[in-house]
Predict the structure of Magnesium transporter.
Amino acid sequence: MGRESGYVFPADPPGGLKKKGAGSWNWILMQSSGQEIILEVDKYAIMHRVKIHARDLRILDPLLSYPSAILGREKAIVLNLEHIKAIITAEEVLLRDPSDDNIAPVVEELRRRLKPVNDNREDNEDDKDLAVQPDAEMGEEDDSPFEFRALEVALEAICSYLAARTIELETAVYPALDMLTSKISSRNLDRVRKLKSQMTRLTARVQKVRDELEQLLDDDDDMADLYLSRKLAGTSSPVSGSGAASWFLASPTIGSKISRASRASMASMRGDDNDVEDLEMLLEAYFMQIDGTLNKLTTVCELHS
């Protein structure tokens, strides 16, 4: 089956990833070339492929309940955000449990955002007669590093997921409080008590994601570790300068948050190997989003107390 049909099931997956039995995990491998492969492999095969240690892979084990983490390693980003457990390199993404209902939308968005450059150019040729809308020139995000496009998909997905769970709880809380106010009964008390417990647990989950982003933003060295393409290229800096600027203008989330003046300034920006401003802007945008979700939860909890 080709890319359009979804997944590829090779008899012998590339890169030495053989199918295993007990102790294996299910992954989808999404490459920069557009190829997708479903894998069932053990941890040693994964560690060998992406060059990470066992302690990094344990972070992605759902049975161990590790807190949210975005870790930069020499050749990979290890990402644990709730149900989104992934390993990102400069050329591919390994995402755990692709058949999970919560992961399927992430796979679809990765498929769309990580579309190969040649495919984007063909699409642009097909759409050349369509009117081009300002601030949304298709294909600009091809200038962005592969690992940052993948990271943005994960951040956007988890922030949207937690925001949706917050809205669901908020929608249930106010009627429950109204019912309790109008009539104090064991049934109404029990309902409010359960909702309060759910809010406490959700607040803790949101707080963990927020704290991880804040910690990352506070450390330039940690952010620099996420520049896999730059490290791969040695002394060159492919993710700084006009390419990075084009990416931010094209990003559906980040682009809308940047003023025209800021865009003009960014377009002329040039960076060195220690520059982390482009990644910092990406992380700050999602930090603000998750911080807003936390504030909403806090407000509801205060009304509940």
About this structure: The beta strands are 25-31, 36-41, 69-72, 77-81, 84-88, 92-96. The chain has eleven helices and six strands.
